[in-house]
């Protein structure tokens, strides 16, 4: 356990500059939205900026994870580490996840402050969209975890191929080939009617989408009243793929790939 805590602390020290930098960017963009709203006379502009900041969190966790992996690639500490691949990568995923959640909470707080600070004459939302906000956070976070696992897999796969001198300079072609094959197999499976019916067998009801408009002295936003069935099984399948890729990546690290 002490070794794991040591890895957590090391990853925190090597990545905290990225987190602090991102927090500074969030505050800068938010301030820019406030200024732009004041200049244009549209106080709702800042709410649009907050929504954009939330969408940007698709990249926060993957970027922080990739930055930590780049550090490992430069130092090559993993090549001589006695720890398993699981223990080496899990602290990085935990740190990146904590950073992403912390910055997302900051954006949520800024969003609440922005909505509460709107003039009484402005009706951006007809109600406080707490439920939709939670679903938005969960959706963005799940997608960010997905991207992070793919980045980890491609990173380990890329360096694993480096052990073969004949293909070391064209490793990126194998990465591209894997993506094409995976997408082709997925598209082929989805072309079967029985697969589509299976994926549509278990659904939940969600709003059809989100829309907002900002005009001169006028703004409106909200979720469409139309409710559509949202399939769950495709995400369960994607989760299984993520677990498989994570196990393969840890196995590659256990093989002491030269990073």
Number of domain modules: 1
- Categorize the overall geometry: globular
Bin the strand percentage.
5-15%
Q: Taking all residues together, what is the mean pLDDT?
A: 80
Secondary-structure element order, as H and E?
HHHHHHEEEEH
Low-pLDDT runs of 5+ residues are none
Estimated helix fraction: over 70%
Task: Indicate the structural class.
Answer: mainly alpha
- Number of discrete helical segments: 7
Radius of gyration: 22 Å
Largest sheet: 2 strands, antiparallel
Protein name: ABC transporter permease
Keywords: Membrane, Transmembrane, Transmembrane helix
Transmembrane segments: 17-39, 45-69, 89-114, 134-161, 173-195, 232-253
Organism: Rossellomorea oryzaecorticis
Could you characterize what this model shows?
The protein is mainly α and 259 residues long. The protein has one domain. It is built from 7 helices and 4 strands; from the N terminus they run H-H-H-H-H-H-E-E-E-E-H. The chain has helices at residues 2-40, 45-75, 85-116, 130-161, 171-190, 193-199, 233-254; strands at 203-207, 210-215, 218-223, 227-231. A two-stranded antiparallel ribbon has the order 1-4. Strand 2 and strand 3 (218-223) form a beta hairpin. Helix 1 (2-40) packs parallel to helix 3 (85-116), helix 3 (85-116) packs antiparallel against helix 4 and helix 4 (130-161) packs parallel to helix 7 (233-254). It is globular, with a radius of gyration of 22 Å. The model has no long low-confidence stretch (mean pLDDT 80). It comes from Rossellomorea oryzaecorticis. This is ABC transporter permease. The chain crosses the membrane at residues 17-39, 45-69, 89-114, 134-161, 173-195, 232-253. Keywords: Membrane, Transmembrane, Transmembrane helix.
């Amino acid at each position: 356990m002490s070794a794991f805590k040591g890895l957590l602390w090391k990853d925190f020290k090597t990545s905290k500059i990225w987190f602090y930098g991102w927090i500074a960017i969030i505050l800068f963009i938010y301030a820019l939205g406030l200024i732009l709203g004041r200049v244009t006379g549209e106080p709702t502009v800042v709410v649009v900026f907050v929504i954009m900041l939330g969408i940007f969190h698709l990249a926060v966790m993957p970027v922080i994870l990739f930055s930590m992996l780049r550090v490992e690639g430069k130092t090559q500490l993993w090549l001589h580490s006695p720890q398993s691949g699981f223990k080496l990568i899990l602290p990085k995923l935990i740190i990146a996840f904590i950073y992403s959640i912390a910055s997302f909470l900051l954006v949520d707080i800024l969003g609440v402050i922005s909505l509460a600070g709107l003039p009484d004459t402005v009706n951006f939302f007809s109600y406080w969209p707490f439920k939709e906000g939670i679903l938005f956070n969960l959706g963005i976070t799940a997608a960010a975890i997905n991207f992070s696992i793919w980045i980890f897999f491609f990173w380990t796969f890329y360096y694993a191929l480096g052990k073969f001198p004949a293909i070391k300079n064209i490793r990126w072609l194998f990465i591209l080939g894997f993506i094409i094959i995976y997408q082709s197999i997925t598209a082929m499976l989805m072309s079967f009617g029985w697969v589509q019916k299976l994926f549509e067998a278990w659904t939940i009801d969600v709003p059809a989408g989100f829309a907002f408009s900002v005009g001169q002295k006028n703004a409106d936003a909200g979720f469409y009243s139309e409710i559509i069935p949202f399939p769950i099984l495709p995400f369960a399948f994607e989760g299984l793929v993520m677990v498989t890729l994570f196990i393969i990546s840890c196995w590659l690290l256990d093989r002491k790939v030269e990073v």
